[in-house]
Amino acid sequence: MADLVARGQDVRIAGRSRDRLEKLSREHGGLDLAVADVEDPPSVGRAADGASALVTTVGPFSWWGHIAAEAAIERAIPYIDITGEPPFVREIFEQYGPRAAEAGSPMLTAMGYDYVPGNLAGALALEAAGREATRVDIGYFLTGETTRDLKSLSGGTLRSLRASSSAKQFRWHDGRIQTERSARRVLDFELEGRNQTAISIGATEHFSLPRLHPELRTVNVGLGWFGPASRVVSLASAIGEQVERLPVVSGLVKRASGDHEHHPRTKSRERPVGPSEATMDAARGRFVAVARDSSGRELASVRMESPNPYGLTGKIVGWAAEHAAAGQISGVGALGPVEAFGLEPLRAACESFGLREI
After folding, report:
1. Angle at the Cα of 229 (from 252 to 288), degrees rounded to 5?
2. What's the whole-number average pLDDT of the chain?
3. What is the value of pTM for the model shown?
4. Structural domains of the chain, ranges and CATH numbers in brackets
């Protein structure tokens, strides 16, 4: 929101607490506001009336994301979210996207740290590799006070992690989307001269990169937050109930996410605990994309670095929303970031936000 205001955009903020909205409005020079709550879906629709684009940050998206998605489709306006939840990403591409295309409006899901950097790095690697490339491997990593012990995750991120962790995920393999369990595979990457491991995840790259590069038969996307423990996480079927049985992981997730034995669809009214500003400032995103031929031979690779993921997400969303409001998105329906904006404009914008090749 702050990035949109800084860009000179007319912003209407919406949320369930009028007091917080009024305080936020005053802090940013007097913004238009609307009280809206996902537990009252019509209120979300009313908040979107007359808007040129709808940006939603309300998660877990697997629980609440459909409310804003429906509101945007009904009004035929561009939709943008910041989810990192694979099941919801799949819903956007397979269920909501076709309906948005019929309405003539675009949908941009996961427009932040998840999963714009991998789309950009993957597209650049595939462009360099050429038509011989039939596979691309993409890895997401963090440095600083990393998420190996989950301490640097925000409460909202942790809630999303819990909401989507036990659901089936997916990947692009043999030229089609295939369902698979969470963290089924462990992926290996070279980063800063060392081997790094990541667990497989579903992401927008599985849907968007094959559209850009029709020769692709396989897209692998890995989350490297667990470091050397990735193989243990994979063997435990990862991220879901089995992992949460580990005392350290279970305790951290429950405390940080504000989950105190609530029903999974019950919304806690407590503000979830998040990382300190110092922790966020110290964090750095690292991203790797490797394009390979059918024999597995490396054809091209791209490595990128970004400032803290939360700050990066805010800048990407602000830029995307500005373009959406101006009608500067190419295509309708569910789109990947390169499809929506073009490779070079996206690279230039991300470079200005600090996401650069290294």
Report:
1. 105
2. 86
3. 0.86
4. 2-112+311-342+350-357 (3.40.50.720), 116-307 (3.30.360.10)
